[in-house]
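Bit of a strange request maybe. I'm writing a small parser for structure token strings and I need a real example to test against, not something I typed by hand. Could someone generate the tokens for this chain?
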Amino acid sequence: MVLANEFPPDVRVENEALSLAEAGHEVHLACFTRKNAPEKEIFKGIIIHRVPISLFLYKTSVAALTAPFYFSFWERFLENITEKYRIETIHIHDLPLVRVGVRLKRRHDLNLVVDLHENWPALLSVSPYTRTLLGRLLSPNFLWVRYEKAILRHADMIIVVVGESKNRLGKLGLDMSRIIVVSNTLKLDNFELPDDKPDPDYFTLYYAGGLTYHRGLQTVIEAISLVHRQIPQIRLRIAGSGKYKSRLQEMIRMHKLDSRVEFLGHLPLSGVAANLARADAALIPHLKTAHTDSTIPHKIFQYMYANKPVIASDCIPLERIVSETKSGVVFKSGSAADLAGKITKLYNKEVTILPARRWVEQKYSWDKDASVLVSLYESLADSGIA
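Reply from user aminoacidic:
Good idea to test on real output. This should exercise your parser:
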């Protein structure tokens, strides 16, 4: 496995690697480190190989298509691991390093599995650092769109997180039979909920995740400014970090909501679970884009497992799952007025919300997704390669 990031933590990568190791595969995970982590380590049976990366190289990743020395850096690192450990299958997480995977596949006669966590071109199109003049010059979006369509044809199998993403790739002309869905579902033995209950003195909304413009928390703050007089007990608790925090704090001060919004900072999974248990409802207010219409966040399954009403924007996969499970309410992305109305109805118990834990236990379970992943690798083994 190849991950262009620090590891741990990465819930999806860890779940996949552990499931394959438990199925009898020897799993090597190649990643970078900017935190002076050990260059080799055994983590829960996963053999981790780390390479230190300079700040300059780290920042050039977004411009990899116009600055190919980033690919050269990874190719040298992965070539050594591939030869030394006689790697049989290379599993690339996310789009950028697929080119390196293709080169290694050809040179060493490997199988290539590409694991797309995101719609990468769509993600870059809304990222702040690619919307500047310099960003558009170094990382023009049309190059990533063209790269995705061309490079994915060389993959033996492609993994996506939702059916909407599979359909999107099918429209690019890729072979649908080589695309499987392994979703961002919850590994139940990794997520322990305490017995804590919500504070009866408050109506607590909870959000866990990154703090960026496209996560939509600005819409939540605007909505709270519209309803805090009708719902005097309302408060928002935010677990996560990001550069957009300062802008959110400005909005909170402007609306005089300082006493109603609390930033909890970045929390370990146990802290995320503990604060979720104390919430009355949980938020996924993502702005609706081509990116969010073709991915699914891990936290929706955490919220559902905790039997917390989900308040989600109308991104296609979110709306589909919330509507199917009747686990919450859906509002129009970016509309503070619509969100305020949905929060009010939820508070006044004007909508029927059903407990969703059984859906996570029976359908949206990592056990089911792990079996799909393991079956994929069994099919590679049957081909005589993996």
